[in-house]
Design a protein that fits this description.
The complex is a heterodimer of chains A (159) and B (683). Chain A is of the alpha+beta class and 159 residues long. Chain A contains four helices and eleven strands; from the N terminus they run βββββαββββαββαα. In chain A, the strands form two sheets. A six-stranded mixed beta sheet of chain A has the order 8-1-2-11-10-9. Chain B is α+β, with helices and mostly antiparallel strands and 683 residues long. Helix content of chain B is 42%, strand content 22%. Chain B contains 20 helices and 22 strands. In chain B, the strands form five sheets. In chain B, strands 14-18-19-17-16-15 form a six-stranded mixed beta sheet, covered by helices on one side. In chain B, strand 21 and strand 22 form a beta hairpin. Chain B is globular. In chain B, 36% of the residues are buried. The chains are: A alpha+beta (159), B alpha+beta (683). At the A-B interface, strand 4, strand 5 and strand 7 of A face strand 21 and strand 22 of B.
């Protein structure tokens, strides 16, 4: 019998993304967020998660989603990345998806180029595509700084 | 040893290492005492007791080598040693402390302990006077800092390291070339790591050459290869089992600890002296508790305080809803009772974490003595305020910066005796370590009566290294010039010595103090000496804070730094030198605008100035609304994602929302300046 991957699926824009269920602590509604000065743009601030202070990243901003709307479906995915808790704002999150390991393909070349090398694979589930991502890479500071530099240099080039 | 299960044995060993560290500290102190009063038999007895305990404990743990050596030492101490050792006993005791300490480190790392031959030799010389001097090659193998790093590096890569000593033949016809010949011979055997003396030619006084070598050959082979007729008269090859062998009576405190990577050795630590706790006079009433358990306790107290403020808020709402209900009084009573108990609980737990500064200071007499000795100076160390209490975690972190400052003071600050006499100062230098309270802070002073820091020299050096441009130089204030001391890689020492001079240390001092939310400042005068002030918060855990609102977000500042609060009006704000200021009872107060910190801006005209004091200076923080005063449990922010100088931590309020605690020095430094720059840009 083929092994199955247990994935927490969440939606950003029109796509479904997935992270291994072991990384996700819980999924909560978006509470009041305290903004932190000088934090990067995609860091929304910090929240109180039952007495713990947890930084919150807006994954939609991180993924460069153009339209960001706050609806009642928005959720915070609380994940443990490198022994630290971090909250990720997503458009919606609800399902646990089971994908047989054989149905996961390595990321197509498109994803490997440039900034998007945090995609670890693409899962197929009854006609849907689920993009599996590596949270550690998404949250890496060096990576993001480089992205910022890339954006700036592009700005400078276009100006 | 095998009476116990493995777990039990490991536990026993941990206990042993802890108590042994204490014993060694005692031994060090007794050695220093003995140096002052060599004839005092009571001290000798104390030393003997200490050594005896160490012997017993180490034997119980199965550390035979250490136990045997301690036994030999104890034997010598019995024979009225103090009376007829004419002072060399103190030296032996100190060497013993070092030897034991390096053996312990080796045991801890599960390695073969050094043989302690040097100590044996000293013990022997005590018992047989005059010493039975068979001509034996005497080598100390004391390497300078950099070479130690190289050796440790090679050693950590698993290479076999040998210490080789050459005695130069006194009849050697070509002393000048001897060193080169030796060099060549050594390089034939393997990789040359270090050589002392590191000059091109041998001087006449020197007839021992010491080499450190990484080689795959066996000892005997090297010995044979290195015996060069008519150049060397004797060759000694020693395999090094741990880099800690570098401990000798000349270079004590910069020995390399096994298992520490090479880059860490750039910042020497005094590991053998660390992790002692108070010396128990009556052990029965003292309890050893893991610091983590206390932290857990403190955490719970923190949660309770949050719970208290939640309850407080509920009762407030209840008051509003049922203003006439008799239950209100009962609630208020219960609330007051609970907060009193909670207060006491918090204080008690905090007190558990507090330890006297003495624990930090007590390692320095030895350090000062050794450094002073190696630079040929005499330095008197005076400490005061040892009973000042400080949070254990802060204390532990202060050890490193403090040792840098002490080294620097002895090595660079205090001049050589003849220079001091010329300058009209007593030949003996004085180094003062003192600790005292100042508001919510503890100040630790390191004061020397040496030559002082020459800020001109600093500036010149900074220009030379390209740290400073000529334009910067013109705008530099005296204080800013002195601050250059903390710049990494800048050292005014003409010569890099094994103790200091690489310009790494001061940088470390500043970084650690910043991490502790503290500060460091310097006061210096040419030839009158230098004083460093290390200012650290009393505790890192719970503070009384003032809460206020700026642009609809609540922030907190430590109440201890708030001097007063004033209502101000837009029309009273003046602009002086591109700074917003107000006049307050005839004093000019610079303002710091917090607006712009958050993301939403409001155009409020009524506002408050919260006057804060930061060291000597005062600033007015411009805030929109005041919220109140509250006890906050500081929680660290995730440093990776939301790291900023502006915020020192966060806390949770009674309603469950998160409040940010501002780091005032960061806020003033950043917003004060950025405002000025903004103004300049628009002007």
């Amino acid at each position: 019998m083929a092994r199955e991957l247990h994935i927490v699926g969440f939606r950003i824009g029109r796509e479904t993304f997935g992270v291994p269920i072991a990384m996700v602590h819980e999924i909560v509604r978006v509470p009041e967020i305290t903004a932190v000065p000088e934090a990067p743009d995609y860091v929304e601030g910090v929240i109180n998660l039952r007495g713990k202070i947890v930084p919150v990243v807006d994954l939609r901003k991180r993924f460069g989603e153009a339209e960001i709307s706050s609806t009642r479906k928005n959720r915070i995915l609380v994940a443990e990345v490198e022994h630290k808790m971090v909250g990720l704002i997503v458009d919606a999150a609800s399902e646990v998806i089971k994908i047989p390991e054989g149905d996961v393909e390595p990321p197509p070349n498109v994803f490997e180029e440039g900034e998007l090398n945090y995609v670890t694979g693409v899962g197929k589930l009854s006609g849907r595509l689920i993009i599996l991502v590596d949270l550690t890479r998404i949250l890496q500071k060096g990576e993001l700084r480089r992205l910022g530099e890339v954006a700036q240099s592009q700005l400078a080039a276009s100006a | 040893m095998s009476f116990f299960s493995d777990d039990r044995a490991a536990e026993l060993r941990d206990l042993f290492f802890e108590s042994a560290a204490e014993l060694l500290q005692n031994l060090n102190e007794e050695g220093l005492e003995l140096e002052k009063r060599p004839q005092d038999e009571e001290i000798v007895r104390q030393v003997r007791r200490t050594v005896h305990t160490l012997k017993g404990d180490s034997a119980a743990c199965g550390y035979q080598e250490l136990s045997a050596l301690a036994h030999e030492l104890e034997d010598v101490l019995g024979r009225e040693a103090a009376a007829n050792s004419n002072g060399s006993l103190a030296e032996v005791v100190l060497i013993a402390a070092d030897t034991f300490s390096s053996m312990l480190s080796a045991y801890r790392g599960n390695m073969q302990p050094p043989a302690g031959d040097e100590l044996r030799r000293h013990i022997l010389s005590l018992t047989q006077q005059p010493a039975p001097a068979p001509h034996r090659l005497q080598a100390s193998f004391s390497w300078p800092e950099y070479e130690q790093a190289v050796i440790a590096d090679a050693w950590s890569k698993g290479e076999t390291v040998y210490n080789v000593a050459f005695a130069i033949d006194r009849q050697c016809p070509m002393r000048g070339a001897a060193l080169q010949v030796i060099r060549n011979a050594v390089q034939d055997c393997g990789r040359l790591l270090a050589i002392v003396p590191d000059e091109n030619a041998l001087t006449d006084e020197r007839d021992v050459v010491e080499v450190s070598l990484a080689s795959e050959q066996a000892e005997a082979w090297i010995e044979k290869r290195c015996s060069i007729p008519s150049v060397t008269s004797q060759v000694l090859v020693q395999r090094v089992y741990a880099p800690i062998d570098a401990y000798t009576d000349d270079v004590l405190e910069i020995g390399i600890q096994p298992l520490i990577p090479a880059e860490a050795t750039a910042v020497p630590v005094f590991q053998p002296f660390e992790s002692q706790s108070t010396v128990p006079a009556n052990t029965e009433t003292l309890l050893r508790v893991d610091a983590e358990r206390i932290d857990a306790l403190l955490n719970l107290v923190g949660e309770l305080i949050i719970g208290k403020s939640m309850l407080h808020q509920c009762i407030g709402e209840f008051d509003k809803r049922f203003p006439k209900d008799p239950l209100r009084g009962k609630f208020a009573d219960a609330m007051a009772f609970q907060s009193r108990i909670l207060n006491d609980l918090q204080k008690s737990v905090m007190k558990v974490r507090m330890v006297p500064v003495e624990q930090l200071f007590r390692r320095f007499p030895r350090v000062v003595r050794d450094i002073a000795k190696s630079c040929g100076k005499t330095v008197n160390l005076v400490t005061s305020g040892e009973d000042t209490d400080l949070d254990k975690s802060i204390l532990d972190m202060l050890a490193e910066p403090l040792s840098h400052l002490v080294r620097n003071a002895v090595d660079h600050g205090i001049e050589a005796a003849e220079d001091r006499v010329k300058a009209g100062k007593p030949a003996q230098g004085t180094l003062r370590l003192s600790a005292y309270h100042q508001g919510n802070h503890i100040v630790i002073e390191v004061n020397d009566d040496g030559r002082g820091i020459d800020s001109n020299k600093l500036v010149a050096k900074a220009l030379e290294c390209g740290i400073l441009s000529a334009a910067d130089k013109a705008a530099l204030s005296e204080a800013e010039a002195l601050d250059l001391v903390f710049h990494p890689g800048l050292s005014t020492a003409e010569q890099v010595t094994s103790i200091s001079g690489r310009g790494v240390g001061m940088d470390v001092v500043k970084t650690i103090l910043q991490r502790l939310k503290g500060s460091v400042s310097i006061k210096t005068a040419p030839s009158a000496g230098t004083t460093f002030y290390l200012r650290v918060p009393l505790t890192l855990a719970i503070i009384n804070a003032l809460l206020f609102r700026v642009e609809n977000q609540v922030y907190a500042v430590p109440l201890a730094s708030v001097v007063e609060i004033n209502r101000i009006h837009e029309k009273n704000i003046h602009r002086v030198d591109n700074h917003d200021v107000i006049q307050l009872r005839g004093e000019v107060l610079p303002l710091v605008h917090l607006a712009g910190l958050g993301r939403h801006s409001t155009g409020a005209h009524r506002m408050f100035a919260v006057v804060i004091s930061l060291g000597e200076r005062k600033f007015g923080l411009v805030v929109d609304h005041l919220v109140g005063e509250e006890e906050l449990v500081i929680k660290a922010l995730d440093d990776q994602l939301v790291a900023t100088d502006l915020v020192s931590g966060a806390s949770i309020l009674g309603d469950g929302s998160v409040v940010l605690i501002l780091n005032l020095s960061g806020v003033v430094a950043k917003l004060g300046r950025s405002h000025r720059i903004m103004m300049e840009a628009t002007a």
